[in-house]
Amino acid sequence: MRVLVTGGAGFVGSHTVVSLIEAGHEPVVVDNFINSDRSVLGRIGKLTGNVPELHEADIRDKDAMTDIARTGFDACMHFAALKAVGESVEKPMLYYDNNVSGTISLVEALLEADVNSFVFSSSCTVYGEPETLPLDESMPIGTATNPYGWTKIMMEQVLRDVQLANPDWSVSLLRYFNPVGAHPSGLLGEDPVGTPNNLMPYVARVAAGILPKLQVFGDDYPTADGTGIRDYIHVVDLAEGHLAALARHAGDAGVHTYNLGTGQGHSVLELVRAYEEVSSRPVAYEITGRRPGDVAASWADVTMATEHLGWMTTRDLHEMCADSWNWQQKAR
Ligand code: NAD
Ligand code: WQD
Fold first, then answer.
1. Ligand 2 centroid to 85 CA: how many Å?
2. Ligand 2: nearest atom to the Cα of 177
3. CA 270-202-47 angle, 5° bins
4. Distance (Å, rounded) from C-alpha 180 to C-alpha 201?
5. Which residue among 116, 138, 166, 269 has its CA within the 20 to 30 Å range from the CA of 186?
6. Which residue, 30, 18, 27, is CA-closest to 73?
7. Can you give the residue ranges of every domain in the chain?
8. How far is the CA of 237 from the centre of ligand 2 (A)?
9. Residue 206 CA: which ligand is closest?
10. pLDDT tens, position by position, for the chain (332 residues)?
């Protein structure tokens, strides 16, 4: 299939582009490189023998998106978004504009060009504070604690309404849990600018001696060791989840909602210990106060994805840490 991939140079998008090429599809990347680097395209080429077609454009530019969409696609995978939770609190309008207005412009372009299969990067953040665990897709959408989270809730709603008004549309809402790790080649991964907000990139830099120590945000949660629990998922497993959704639902009218996680939670300290093991480096940490907006624990019920997509993860926490460490060590 010829697939329009917005945000295809980013962390999850680039791994999915590799999986698409490996499966014989033809991904076409749209990115404005606000949070990625052009060199990613060359690295995808090195990995797959195929440099994907690139359009440097902003998804908010409806005319540009319409011109691109009119070149003909079987489906669109929409990764492009801003995702820094703290920044979204400081700059809410930037997030609503980029993520929500951007999605609206993109969808308008797709409607004009008659591209009607859509795969969306949603997030477990839409569930808000979990009342019970694991989280399953039938649970009501919660209240976001930051503008980034609200953009995901809003975009899901926009897409459900678009599907209702255009019954031939296929919309897959993929709710990722906590994507981590890197491509095992060490050619693709996540390299946040400045101090990382997320746990694994931070731990990687402590192990590498770039940052002195990790702040563990709270050890007084009602969990076994008191630290927060999350469902970390290897980015290559996540990429494969997108291919499974495409294979199952492209051209299959309706809204299809899936959690993409492992179904297992790990605490902050478990992740730290796993990282120490694979890197043979100490990861110094101190316990500090809770981070505002954090939930104690979150993990997925993945029954829907297992049963309907025939997909499940195969990479465990050690492999996630090992591939992250391999990526961290490679000079770029
Ligand atoms: P990322 O920042 O690495 O990738 C996003 C890509 O989109 C970047 O290459 C960026 O340059 C591009 N982009 C952003 N705004 C754009 C615009 N207006 N026009 C064109 N390109 C634009 O992020 P990621 O981790 O790969 O996340 C991909 C998607 O998955 C996002 O929608 C994100 O919200 C969602 N998501 C991510 C996580 C996570 O923890 N990584 C979890 C749940 C959901
Ligand atoms: C994981 C655990 C922290 C950093 C975020 C977004 C969410 C989704 C995924 C996009 C928590 C603890 C972290 C640190 C720590 N993204 N931690 N010290 O917050 O679960 O999810 O990414 O949709 O919307 O909020 O991920 O990696 O930031 O935190 O102790 O320096 O690590 O408290 O328990 P989070 P995270």
1. 9
2. 9
3. 95
4. 8
5. 269
6. 27
7. 2-181+232-261
8. 19
9. 2
10. 999 999 999 999 999 999 999 999 999 999 999 999 999 999 999 999 999 999 999 999 999 999 999 999 999 999 999 999 999 999 999 999 999 999 999 999 999 999 999 999 999 999 999 999 999 999 999 899 999 999 999 999 999 999 999 999 999 999 999 999 999 999 999 988 889 999 999 999 999 999 999 999 999 999 999 999 999 999 999 999 999 999 999 999 999 999 999 999 999 999 999 999 999 999 999 999 999 999 999 999 999 999 999 999 999 999 999 999 999 998 65
Q: Cα Rg for the chain, rounded, in angstroms? A: 19
- For 260, phi then psi, to 5°, come to -115, 105
Pocket of ligand 1 (CB under 6 A): 7, 9-13, 30-36, 58-60, 79-83, 98, 102, 121, 123, 176, 179
CA of 294 to the centre of ligand 2 (A): 7
* Bond preceding residue 134 cis, omega within 30 of 0: yes
Does pTM top 0.85 for this prediction?
A: yes
Q: In CATH, what number does 2-181+232-261 get?
A: 3.40.50.720
The CA distance from 274 to 120, in Å, is: 31
Ligand 2 contact via 291 beta carbon (within 6 Å)? yes
